[in-house]
TrEMBL record:
Residue spans crossing the bilayer: 33-51, 63-80, 109-130, 142-166
Species in which this protein is naturally found: Modicisalibacter ilicicola DSM 19980
Tree of life domain: Bacteria
Keyword Transmembrane helix: yes
Name of protein: Phosphoglycerol transferase
Species lineage: Bacteria, Pseudomonadati, Pseudomonadota, Gammaproteobacteria, Oceanospirillales
Compartments, as annotated in UniProt: Cell membrane
GO function terms (MF aspect): transferase activity
Length: 529
């Protein structure tokens, strides 16, 4: 065999081996250096079986392998898993429908291009191998079936479709309690609810993460710290996390039940009452504020649909910046955002009647975070990849924000809630995060709450009734949506059935999905009695 042909052979086989190793370590959450061991094993097998150079060759055929499309779909699954930690079909479906314009993930464009080039080269190498080696022509049809059967992307879509024909597609809906308020306290407290992007409670483990979480731990000493807040299906991205904690439901994409499924959404969860609806009915003036665009993933629509008077996002806030260039790819940095938030909370406090302030930070956004300039001055230089630097930054900015509004006398008769929007997606501390159990951040203080750690097996859907009871409202059976108040003896769904069983039921659920998106149904009033 000529030397040039031999080089081509080993280049093709080597690239296939690298792709196999990278895909294996990504999907199994193994360190990527183990891909080299898989490459070596692949090359040893290739040498031993003379792949690409059979001892008794047959004439090459100019055919197209059956496995090309399944291989491409697998490579897409690898990219999604490498970017986010898992293939979440619910998130994919919802973002396509709600809109992905003005997202801040531009930093991954180069990575996506490199993935695409590597994928094309993989398909070229595989086509060469099948054409040149008749033994692979026999094997690849079996390989095609294997790739189709085990692709997590296709498996997820098949589960979504299975919900339509599930024997019991109403298991969650039967347990859903429409959020209503039976009785309000004599003096309505204000609410400050701050979501920390991806800053999960797992970071409190100092053995794994050092002091990155210490400022949030200090805030926790002022009131209630809830431990054991797990993440269920369809609650694992920002919009889903906020909806789970404010509506007591998972964010099940509209899917085939939406009348105009290929058009942008006009409403988000029009069929249910959420926190904003309940508090609006009680006379609250309500503001949502976040550094990213309100257009992304239907965020502005959700808050406008559910009782909020004002929504402020990137476009509304950028014009207030002293330095217009001081932004990141998602929007405002958190020091700028929280500086403005102090002024907004003060303006809300000057108005007559109670208020709700909901904020959403950006510093902890995977994979590396977006630490603010104020943190650089405090923590020193950022190496560009250490997510724990960004976690520490977010925790400190949160504590500073709360101390500033407290120093202005704005926390009287106020419940403060600090929560992660969801567990972090894949970041630079991924191996440490997945090394043990994970939980969301949930801290509440003020409004007469005791100082205590509450250990409960729960999900973010339990936050809504817990928050309302912490404010002094009375709920039917201590429940709202699919959640149970963690301040009451009522059992959570996780305590009663286990997280795995809930996730399995969620993949089969149809009735609750219809309830969430049914625009024509009559919603129950947000108050009762």
């Amino acid at each position: 065999m000529p030397i040039s042909t031999s080089r081509v052979r080993w280049l093709m086989l080597g690239h296939l081996g690298l792709c196999l190793g990278y895909a294996t370590t990504t999907m199994l959450a193994l360190p990527h250096f183990l891909a080299l061991a898989i490459l070596v094993a692949w090359l040893v097998l290739a040498w031993g079986f003379r792949w690409g150079a059979p001892m008794y060759p047959r004439a090459p055929l100019r055919i197209w392998p059956w496995s090309l499309i399944p291989l491409a779909l697998w490579w897409l699954s690898v990219y999604i898993t490498d970017s986010y930690g898992r293939v979440d079909i619910g998130a994919i479906l919802f973002h396509f429908q709600a809109g992905i314009a003005e997202h801040g993930g531009t930093g991954r464009i180069l990575i996506a291009i490199l993935y695409a080039l590597a994928g094309v080269m993989m398909l070229v190498a595989f086509t060469w191998l099948v054409r040149i080696d008749h033994r692979w022509r026999l094997l690849e049809r079996i390989l095609m079936l294997f790739l189709l059967a085990l692709n997590p992307l296709l498996f997820g879509f098949s589960l979504q479709g299975a919900a339509i024909v599930a024997e019991d597609g109403a298991w969650l809906d039967r347990r859903y309690v429409p959020p209503t308020i039976e009785k309000a306290p004599e003096e309505l407290p204000n609410l400050i609810l701050l979501y920390l992007e991806s800053i999960e409670g797992t970071y409190a483990d100092t053995n794994r993460f050092g002091n990155a979480y210490r400022d949030l731990a200090a805030l926790g000493k002022r009131g209630l710290v809830f431990r054991g807040i797990r993440q269920s299906e369809n609650t694992g991205w920002t919009m889903a996390g906020m909806i789970a904690s404010q509506c007591g439901t998972p964010l099940m994409p509209a899917g085939l039940i939406h009348d105009n499924q290929f058009e942008p959404l006009e409403h988000v969860l029009p069929g249910v009452n959420c926190l904003g609806d309940l508090l609006s009915a009680q006379g609250y003036h309500q503001l949502f504020m976040g550094g990213a665009s309100l257009e992304f993933a239907g965020k502005g629509l959700f808050y406008e649909d559910h009782g909020f008077d004002r929504t402020l996002g990137r476009h509304e806030l950028e014009r207030r910046l002293e330095d217009p260039s001081y932004v990141n790819s998602w929007g405002l940095n958190d020091d700028s955002l929280l500086d403005m938030a102090v002024e907004e909370v003060e303006a809300l406090a000057r108005r007559p009647g109670p208020f709700t302030f909901v904020g959403l930070t950006l510093s902890g956004h995977p994979p590396y975070g977006y630490p603010a300039r104020a943190c650089l001055e405090r923590q020193g230089e950022f190496d560009g990849v250490d997510i724990l630097y960004s976690v520490e930054c977010s925790a400190w900015l949160t504590r500073r924000f709360i101390e500033r509004i407290e120093n202005r006398g704005l926390l009287e008769n106020t419940l403060v809630v600090v929560a992660s929007d969801h567990l972090s997606m894949k970041n630079s501390a991924w191996q440490q995060l997945i090394a043990g159990p994970r939980e969301n951040t949930l801290i509440m203080f003020g409004n007469g709450l005791p100082r205590q750690i509450v250990y409960r097996e729960a999900t973010t859907m339990d936050i809504l009734p817990t928050l309302l009871e912490a404010m002094g409202f009375t709920l039917p059976s201590h429940r709202a949506g699919l959640g149970a108040s963690l301040l009451s003896p009522a059992q959570t769904l996780v305590e009663r059935h286990g997280l795995e069983a809930i996730d399995e039921r969620m993949l089969e659920e149809r009735a609750l999905q219809v309830r969430l998106w049914k625009e024509t149904q009559d919603k129950p009033p947000p108050t009762s009695g």
